[in-house]
Amino acid sequence: MYIDNADGRDDGLLELEEESAEAFSDWYHNRKYRGGHPWEVYRGGNSTHISLYANHDDEGWYLSLAGSSYGRSVETIKFYTALAKQGIPIYLYDSAGIVSRLTEVDYIGIVPDEVFPRYCSMMFPDAKVFDFMHLPDENTNQVIVATDWYPVPQARLLSD
Questions:
Q1: Which 3 state secondary structure label does DSSP give 24?
Q2: pLDDT tens-place string over residues 16-29
Q3: How many domains does the chain have?
Q4: SS3 letters for 122-157?
Q5: pTM > 0.85: yes or no
Q6: How far is the C-alpha of 105 from the C-alpha of 9, rounded, in Å?
Q7: How far apart are CA 144 and CA 131, in angstroms?
């Protein structure tokens, strides 16, 4: 399934003996190259892929799932639900944001036309904004009226 769905940059994961917990643990803790995407289980762009991470701490192994992009939320939820129903310890990154999107209480940041609407959270420092967009060409006035706007800073001349 990994070969069919991920992008192939596995950091040597596919070379491990499939049933060997020891080989996996050794690879996890001691692998030399960490520049691939061994945790990517559904390929996509920088912000649209789904990753299933193996994690290890003092209590043992657990999984964490990341895939909160707008286009992957439903798949991520199905993925999480299937694993959780099997009793697999799993943590879902950005779960609050996914829930707010599904319950329609999320915020979508409107950014200027010259700004690519991705990775813009720093433009909204006091809000958890997952998705970004430009003002639409259609129904623009309806969007403007329904939007909570930040105050526009006053332009001032510097004095001597």
A1: helix
A2: 998 999 999 999 98
A3: 2
A4: HHCCCCCEEEEECCCCCCHHHHHHHCCCCCCCCCCC
A5: no
A6: 36
A7: 17
Q: Which amino acid is at 96?
A: A
The C-alpha atoms of residue 141 and residue 121 are separated, in whole angstroms, by: 24
Cα 48 from Cα 67, distance rounded (Å): 7
Pair 39, 82 in one domain:
yes
Task: Report the alpha-carbon angle 94-96-100, nearest 5.
Answer: 120
Q: Which of the four pLDDT bands, split at 50, 70 and 90, describes residue 160? A: low
Alpha carbons 12 and 3: distance in angstroms, whole number? 13
The half-sphere exposure of 121 on its side-chain side, counting CA atoms within 13 A, is 8
Q: Considering 89, 104, 119, which residue would you say is the last residue of a domain?
A: 104
Same domain, 97 and 121: no
Q: List the structure tokens of 61.
A: 């192994």
Domain of residue 130: give its range: 106-149
Question: Is the Cβ–Cβ distance between 100 and 106 less than 8 Å?
Answer: yes
